[in-house]
Design brief:
Length: about 160
């Protein structure tokens, strides 16, 4: 994540996905904006929001997150960096959010190539709904952090 891709006033992270050659927009919850503003004095002068440990001109690696999870006691078969995406998708689905919103939020491509050809502004699709969904997700995480009663997922 580069600082130039963030618009904290609009609470958005906009970037280009090289794998799919598409634009993507991530609405940021209030809590995410607060954290980013908090760390901006520490890393805001550099290119990356989270720079590498040794080389500040490179982004933090996925391996850094994986290593942090291991240091916290999570085994590789219990949690991975990518596992946070899957967990969020599963929980938000169980909270009743539409699959189309989740797929767009995760920057998944439309599998039907004909439909995809007509969705030229797909990166902006469901933006108001995804914004509300991401705020609900952040609020849910805050409740977990505070020790809220956790409601079991549907079977």
């Amino acid at each position: 994540m580069e600082w130039k891709d963030l618009n904290l006033d609009a609470a958005e992270w906009c970037y280009f996905i090289t794998k799919t050659e598409t634009q993507h927009i991530v609405p940021l919850a209030r809590q995410a904006v607060e954290v980013l503003r908090e760390i901006q004095p520490l890393t805001g002068r550099g290119k990356y929001v989270f720079h590498g440990e040794r080389y500040h001109d490179r982004p933090m690696s996925d391996n850094a997150i994986r290593s942090a999870l291991r240091r916290m006691g999570w085994a590789n078969d219990e949690m991975t960096p990518h596992g946070f995406r899957a967990m969020a998708s599963t929980i938000l689905d169980n909270m009743g959010y539409k699959q189309e919103w989740l797929e767009r939020q995760l920057a998944h491509e439309e599998p039907n190539k004909v439909k995809a050809a007509y969705k030229r502004d797909a990166w902006r699709m469901y933006l108001p709904e995804r914004t509300a969904m991401m705020q609900a997700w952040a609020d849910y995480l805050d409740k977990l952090k505070a020790g809220a009663v956790v409601i079991p997922l549907r079977a």
